[in-house]
Design goal:
Shape: elongated
Order of helices and strands: EEEHEEEHEHHHEEEEEEEHHHHHHH
Strand content: 15-25%
CATH topology of the largest domain: Nucleotidyltransferase, domain 5
Strand order of the largest sheet: 8-11-12-13
Distance between the termini: 97 Å
Number of domains: 3
Radius of gyration: 36 Å
Length: 359
């Protein structure tokens, strides 16, 4: 019997053998069909065989529909069951007794494993704890059977069906190696992953219009599908937003040195003026520097800053700003609507415009 549970955002896959009561618990990041089949195959590996029938809850990831209360498994689950040689079956709807054994295991794992742990840093770490927990509980006497599940498994294993010689790989998608640029190639496109995974192998799978990349059963990246030859990058994978390289400003003449001494606003003015194609820019800068003698450095700094805001890059513009002083407008963000109390104009009805009234 198999079932899923959720506790504190953790997805818990549980399976139990009906006779020996051997318990299998693992964690995952989701409850998709690929994940469920992955965990079920892993369970068979641990058991060393395959039961004749697998009873599952009516989980949507394994069902293809219901006809007259008979659940039809989806095609992929049928292929999986045929390959391993078991019969898929589903619990009765609204009948807790048909899956009480596995539901009890879900609750037990929540109380005794998930809650006391207080969380794990990764799914891989959580599954290490789950494996140790299963070893412990399967080695103790079961409260109902009054026997040790691990010991009864050795007897039950004799009636389990053998594992197929050719078994599908226990992974969600295609295995890819992360290159030195922190990307993987998939579908003739490249997708970024966290830089810490450079040189390691990850699993890449496409779900609809999304590419999901996992490492050690934990999702590490998610991108929208891009066209062949394109690259999907996430700045967070490289430690934050990528800064574009800029050409350093190297003043040569005395006027350039004096102008850039105004600080960052002078550099912004110079780059914006150059981008705007300002003619005789070197001469304009020399005239602006000369204004410091008359107006002072502080006032000139504010005037250059205002010139950048209004995209005025001539020395005459800066001089005009200095002369205007506090009378120039200040650029602000749009605020609330301006409400005015306007006078009420006298009105008259449309009857006053009738032809009879005009005559």
């Amino acid at each position: 019997m198999i079932d899923w549970g959720t506790e504190a955002g953790v997805q818990i896959f549980c399976a139990v053998l009906a006779w020996s009561r051997y318990r299998f618990v693992r964690f995952a990041s989701d409850q998709r069909r690929e994940t469920t089949l992955h965990r079920l195959a892993e369970c068979f590996e641990e058991l060393g065989g395959v039961p004749a029938k697998v009873l599952a809850d009516r989980m949507g990831c394994l069902t293809g529909g219901t006809v007259a209360n008979v659940v039809v498994p989806n095609a992929e689950y049928v292929r999986f069951a045929t390959h391993f040689g078991f019969q898929p079956d589903f619990c009765e709807a609204a009948d807790p007794e048909s899956k009480g054994v596995v539901e009890a295991l879900v609750g037990y794992a929540k109380r005794d494993l998930v809650v006391p742990a207080g969380g794990w840093s990764s799914t891989g770490e959580a599954n290490v704890a789950a494996t140790a927990w299963c070893t412990e509980v399967n080695g103790r006497v079961h409260s109902e059977t009054m026997a040790v599940p691990a010991e009864r498994l050795s007897t039950e294993r004799a009636v389990l069906r053998p594992l197929p010689s050719l078994r599908p790989p226990l992974r969600h998608g295609e295995l890819r190696k992360v290159d030195r640029l922190g990307t993987v190639r998939f579908g003739s496109a490249r997708y970024s992953v966290p830089a810490r995974l450079v040189g390691r192998s990850v699993e890449v799978a496409a779900h609809g219009g999304t590419v999901v990349i996992s490492h050690e059963d934990a999702e590490v990246a998610r991108h929208g599908v891009v066209a062949p030859g394109e690259v999907a990058l996430d700045d967070a994978h490289y430690g934050g937003k990528v800064t574009r390289p800029t050409r350093a400003i190297r003043p040569r003449s005395p006027s350039e040195v004096a102008f850039l001494a105004l600080g960052g606003v002078a550099e912004a003015f110079l780059r914006a003026a150059a981008a705007a194609g300002t003619p005789r820019l070197a001469g304009e800068l020399a005239e602006i520097v000369a204004l410091e003698a008359s107006w002072g450095k502080v006032a000139l700094h504010h005037a250059v800053e205002r010139a950048v805001g209004f995209r005025r890059f001539k020395a005459a513009d800066v001089r005009a700003i200095l002369r205007a002083g506090a009378g120039v407008p200040t650029v602000t963000n749009p605020g609330a609507a301006l409400l005015l109390d306007l006078p009420v104009a006298p009105t008259r009805s449309l009857d006053a415009y009738a032809l009879e009234q005009v005559r």
